[in-house]
Amino acid sequence: MKVTRADVARLAGVSSATVSNVLNENNKVKEETAVRVRAAIKELDYRPDMIARSMVMKKTMQIGIVLENISNPFFGDIVRGFESAANEKGYFVNICTGFNKLDDYFDNFIIRRLDGVFVTAIPYKFKIDKLYHLVDKGIKVIVSGNVGADFRKVSSIENNHIEAMHIAMQYLYDLGHRDIAYLSGLGRNLPYDLRSIGYREMVEKLNLPCKDSLLFDGKFPYSTDMMDGFHYANELLDSGRKFTAVICVNDLMALGAMKALKARGLRIPEDVSVMGFDGISYGQYWEPTLTSMSMDKIQFGKKAFELLYTNMSRGSTGYFQNDLELVEGQSTAKCR
Amino acid sequence: MKVTRADVARLAGVSSATVSNVLNENNKVKEETAVRVRAAIKELDYRPDMIARSMVMKKTMQIGIVLENISNPFFGDIVRGFESAANEKGYFVNICTGFNKLDDYFDNFIIRRLDGVFVTAIPYKFKIDKLYHLVDKGIKVIVSGNVGADFRKVSSIENNHIEAMHIAMQYLYDLGHRDIAYLSGLGRNLPYDLRSIGYREMVEKLNLPCKDSLLFDGKFPYSTDMMDGFHYANELLDSGRKFTAVICVNDLMALGAMKALKARGLRIPEDVSVMGFDGISYGQYWEPTLTSMSMDKIQFGKKAFELLYTNMSRGSTGYFQNDLELVEGQSTAKCR
DNA sequence: GTGAAAGCGCTAACAT
DNA sequence: ATGTTAGCGCTTTCAC
Predict the structure, then answer these.
(1) How close does chain A come to B76, measured CA to CA in Å?
(2) Each residue of A39-59: pLDDT tens digit?
(3) What's this model's pTM, rounded to 2 decimal places?
(4) Which residues belong to any copy of the HTH lacI-type domain (chains A, B) (predicted)?
(5) What 3-state DSSP class applies to A249?
């Protein structure tokens, strides 16, 4: 049988309300009685039931975090930062990772009355209306990767990928590269593909001869894993277009791309320079080590929770923009 | 205001019990009334509240999955398989990943009344008593990686890592290797380090000259990530001991180890053969591709859920042993 | 076939 | 300072 508050109350010779007051530490209870109650709690190994509590409090102290690829260590780190910050505030985190059916989670969030949700996934994976619907149902939301969101409804934390791409391009340009390919994985047709925007801005600004012939769009379902990098690099190679540097949408793709380039006998960085985004640690164990636009992912996760927490407790949405930093590896070098 | 069953009942001109009967499809309701009820549900955009339902049903339809390193794609795949199987049965999965404080989750599982838990983590990360305590509280448990568990209390799904290690050793032996190092990450002092057991059995059986001088134990907190492989490989190199092959506890460590070996000018596989366990896809993008004792991780996750499901619905624990298969890459070759 | 009512374990007025 | 009680939204007998 389940031990309830009533059992504790009976054993301690008090009412269940008194037990509540002891547990919720609003020191309304005389120390003498509190001691008796605590003893009873211990004796019965009683634990308050969160379900019943959620029922009346209208708070579940549960947060969902939705992401596409749990195996990408980039997200792994973000999750860690987010979760540890959430745990500190007493929240329990649901990690939801479904490669394609993210929408289904949203319905679940509603019927399970989550307090908040952190969605870090590219927007085509879900319907934005579904997201707003969460908000209508009283669930606070923070998004990342979704530039088009209505900031009055949801909080937002974004990486400044446009600026980061500018830095990357300028860096390669300064090394003498002119034929810089970009393997997007996403695509210029997707409005939230900020790196593509930054890329094209720099092609323009630096007056690169390739125009946008070296921008390789991704294809549905816009997967950006290692194997995709391998695939898109081969596409680049097969195109026969001239290039001396390759930027990839993320490190995972960059690592896969390097594999493809090497397989065709190209040396990195002697023949071709390669860069990624994210700064995942695996990049440092590759051969050669990967140059990347890097960031503090744990911190990013923490910050995301903070914004969500503010939203949950004060009801106000917020916005944060995160800057990336160039970390040089051995995968880039002067253009010969 | 929240839409409740009562609202629907009122609009449809029936009682809330009838609404329940419609929703739970126990066709006790005349089709004519059911139609009216469904119309009311749609009109009000009503959704049953899982919290209230959990309250009375004493089932939350929530399952926790506890793992140590979310970023290891090995676990990522297992989670995917597990989660998709769980979702099909209507369960919502909580992924819990904390590098060290796994115990805390267990308390949470109790007060949140999860129906079941899948723990795939090495046992020293949590107290086994805490695990049994879950069972006492009515939460069904399946473990993986914990050979010592009481099978009457918890279900279990294990990889046959002893056998797999035998296969790996025999394979290297047949290639002519005699000085085969094993970077355990865990350690022979940990009873659940099955690979170490298998290793020592084969050293004995094949009468390898190295005895166990080439078995490198891990150190607390027994992390087995890429950087650990790098670290332990350096330890091996620094020991000055002769070796022609290296087996690592998992692929991630093997990839890190390759980095260290190459950094000292050793060629793989010409100078040294390297093998891992798990068969993660990243291994196929490395240079050279990794030979590994591989397995179907998605299937493993599915199977884990099935066992848990049986446990939850019929109350009977179960056991499954999974076999690994040698997948050759370019990281192993004949010993010169 | 449908409705009334009790109860799941808790919190939060409101009484005492 | 402590107890009583009315819900929270649902399921489930048990009547009708």
Answers:
(1) 5
(2) 999 999 999 999 999 999 999
(3) 0.93
(4) 3-57
(5) coil
